[in-house]
Amino acid sequence: MDINKVLLLGGSGFIGAYVVNRLSQRGIEVTVPTRRRERTKALIMQPGVEMPEADINCPKTLSELARGHDAVINLVGILHGRDFAKAHVELPKKIIAACAAAGIRRLVHMSALKAEAKAPSAYLASKGEGEALVRAAGETLDVTIFRPSVVFGLGDAFLSRFACLLKSSPIFPLGFGQARFQPVWVADVADAIVDCLGDAATFGQTYDLAGLKVYTLRQLVDYVRQLSGGTARVIALSDSLAYVQAGLMSLAPKPWLSPDNLRSMKVDNVSDGSRQPANWRPAALEAIAPTYIARQTPKGKLDGFRFRAGR
Ligand SMILES: NC(=O)c1ccc[n+]([C@@H]2O[C@H](COP(=O)([O-])OP(=O)(O)OC[C@H]3O[C@@H](n4cnc5c(N)ncnc54)[C@H](OP(=O)(O)O)[C@@H]3O)[C@@H](O)[C@H]2O)c1
Questions:
Q1: How many other C-beta atoms are found inside a 10 Å radius of the C-beta of residue 288?
Q2: Given this model, what pLDDT does residue 255 score?
Q3: CATH number (domain holding residue 119)
Q4: What is the model's pLDDT at position 85?
Q5: Which of 11, 157, 220, 295 has the most CB atoms less than 10 A away?
Q6: Closest by alpha carbon to 185, among 67, 25, 15?
């Protein structure tokens, strides 16, 4: 199957930037509708990238946007707020309808590891519902679904945020420290998405995208503390205090933690390895994290100079 032009929804975010980059490098034209074009100037500098300002939640707009493309990739997702059903269930429904209206068969959909309708958090439950809809559309469309664990890399809101907090505050209160994750590098995720586009073996498949190793949240925070030179004391919170902390943080204009996030952490974010893409060889966290977390420390800067000087 030849894929020359892709409609990328949710392409203005963290993972989207890497997917746009990969598509552009492979000479695949990409349309990335966005709500705020001014925030995405770096993406539009790349060859073959168009970024129209559009409301993709309007079915008519979505169908018009879809026309003339060979495939749709849906990366739209939210971690906070009340609009989970709108973003994770209603939008996939509209995307399936827009594909049918525009005569597009190929749909790649981003879900999340451990998404399922009965999951304890609204995020995972709505992702599970959306995933089930897309899977059911596999009767008429060539669908591939990806379920990543937490994604790390330059520009992430995960390890980078820990690094920032560990450096800027004397204490780092941490709830759910025993929650388990299998972090996966954003570039590996983007490659999997772009590699599958024309590969008929991936049609109708659902893949977990997980990294090499499993870590507890506490291990990740300690690792970032060591890499970033952060001095904050990490203080373990009981579950009830963690919910109080998350409840307060969710009131911020741009929250980065909510009680719903904690409910997600009740489920191990770990893959059993039975549903990974063919030839899946993810990068080690320890090979990548120092390249963007340790950069700002004196040792990190020195390592950077050495690296660039080839020593
Ligand atoms: N990052 C992770 O660790 C991780 C792990 C598992 C699964 N995922 C999934 O991977 C996907 C991409 O994640 P990400 O980290 O790149 O997220 P992100 O940086 O927050 O980007 C999300 C994208 O979705 C768009 N979006 C959100 N709500 C929308 C709405 N109501 N209407 C239109 N567009 C909307 C955003 O557009 P604007 O720029 O206009 O806001 C942005 O382009 C999501 O589906 C996420 O659930 C991510």
A1: 21
A2: 92
A3: 3.40.50.720
A4: 98
A5: 11
A6: 15
264 located within any domain = no
Pocket of ligand 1 (CB under 6 A): 10-16, 34-36, 56-57, 75-78, 87, 110, 112, 148, 150-151
| Bridge partners for 127 per DSSP | none
Query: Any idea which residue has 């759910």 for tokens?
Result: 176
Tell the burial category of 200 from Cβ atoms under 10 Å away from its Cβ (0-12, 13-18, 19+).
exposed
With tokens 């000087």, the residue in question is: 309
Pick from 9, 12, 123 the residue to mutate for probing ligand 1's pocket: most ligand atoms within 8 Å of its CB. 12
Residue nearest to atom 22 of ligand 1 (CA): 13
Residue 44 in any domain: the answer is yes
Domain count, the chain: 1
Compute the Cα dihedral for 82, 88, 93, 97 and give only its sign. Answer: positive
Structure tokens at 88: 């994770």
Q: 10-residue block means of pLDDT along the chain (311 residues)?
A: 95 96 97 86 89 96 98 97 96 98 98 97 98 97 98 96 94 97 98 98 98 98 96 97 96 93 98 96 97 78 61 62
Give the pair of three-digit tokens for residue 268. Answer: 């191990």
**Separation CA 289–CA 287 (nearest Å):** 6
| Residue 129 domain boundaries | 5-149+185-209
Instruction: Name the DSSP letter for residue 104.
Output: -
Report if residue 262 sits inside a domain: no
Question: Is 59 domain-assigned?
Answer: yes
Tell how far CA 162 is from the center of its chain.
17
